[in-house]
Amino acid sequence: MQLDVLGNPDYGELSIDLEPGEKLHVESGAMSRMSPALELRTHLMGGILAGLARKIFGGESFFVGEYGGPQGGHLSLSPGLPGTVMHEHLEDSELVLTAGSFLACTSGIQLKTRFGGLRALFSGEGAFVLRATGTGELFFNAYGAVIEKQVDGSLRVDTGHVVAWEPTLDYSIAGMGGLKSTLFSGEGLTMDFQGTGRLWVQTRNLPATAGWLTPFLRG
Fold first, then answer.
1. 86-125: buried (b, 16+ CB within 10 Å) or exposed (e) per residue?
2. Does residue 44 lie in a domain region?
3. Which phi and psi (to 5°) does residue 53 adopt?
4. Cα dihedral value 43, 67, 146, 186, nearest 10
5. Quick one: which of 15, 150, 159, 164 has the fewest CB in 10 Å?
6. Looking at residue 156, which CATH number applies to its domain?
7. Is 160 among the domain residues?
8. Pairing relation of β-strands 31-34 and 109-115?
9. How far is C-alpha 99 from the geometric centre of its chain's CA atoms?
10. Half-sphere exposure at residue 109, Cβ-oriented, CA atoms within 13 angstroms
11. pLDDT digits over 146-158, tens only?
12. pLDDT tens, 112-129?
């Protein structure tokens, strides 16, 4: 497999050349262009219950596309949101993704939807997160550019800017000061990470962008 990420950080896309017999699992609707020799099969990763959990709670598609073929070929993927495409190699390890950030993975990676507890419900990222585990290549995307932070201790991040983190990090939900500051400062809730590990933060916030556009959409 040969891969290249183009267009970062504004309009990232993933360009991959698959060898004969190699397969790639892709988020539904992300295919931009492909070689005619490649075959597409609809694949339900982890069974019906896992697919339902990803769709309802994880912000991902019920089915994923499985691309491959006996001759191999080229495949280009483009996320729905303008921003950065990231690539991580997992070696019998795990990465936690926020809802909607999964783009693609090789067949050695499993996606599991996990309940993050009430803290996740109030985080603004949804009550469920995606846990990518196994060995292989993982691709995920963000809105805007991405800053990778090495946390060693603690770091406070606005909920709308969190993309992914290593499971060695724990987090709690907090407000910006007292109740008045939390409600009226415009900052809302934060995720307070503790521990040692990597954290990926996006420079743009989709709910904030939607809120900015709303006044212009009224008839």
1. bebebeeebbbbbbbbbbbbbbebbbbbeebeeebeebbb
2. yes
3. -65, -40
4. -40
5. 150
6. 3.60.160.10
7. yes
8. unpaired
9. 6
10. 27
11. 999 999 999 999 8
12. 877 655 545 554 444 468
